[in-house]
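go over both lines:
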Amino acid sequence: MLSPVSRPAVFTKAECERIVAVAEETAFADAGLVRGQRVETVRRARIAWLDEAGSADWVFRRIMNTVADVNRNHFDFELTEFAERMQVASYDGEARGHFDWHADVGDGQLAARRKLTIVVQLSDPADYTGGVLQTNGDGHVADALPARGSALIFPSFVLHRVTPVTAGARYSLTTWVHGPAFR
């Protein structure tokens, strides 16, 4: 099965707020594309990176357990590591924050080995307008569950986007799981 998998309530409301607070302590910076390129017509967001140790270790453990369960029951990919830090993204309505259609597999040393992507909704959907996470793995656009604390797990080669946020702010947590190249 290669369709995205939704998991409701991976994190509680209080835990989502705590994740955003930890990200704010590390400071947000303008997001780029591969090799740090900035193309605002493709991506307009601010990001912060969380480590798997320290104040975000509990986040990493929860992500790791969620991914292990979903991979075992749905994808059965050969996964070997979490080679990149977790990324918290902020999409602001005043800036019309968004991320156009893209896949997470790329030419970079780490991006080439991405096999699964997990995106967690950290914001209450009542706090912003727009900002819909959508996937298109089979020629049909599907909206992700917008509930705070829910996660969407999908193969990293699946096209996905975040539509422009037109009011408020949307926060999400993204993590990638790596393994040997697909055959």
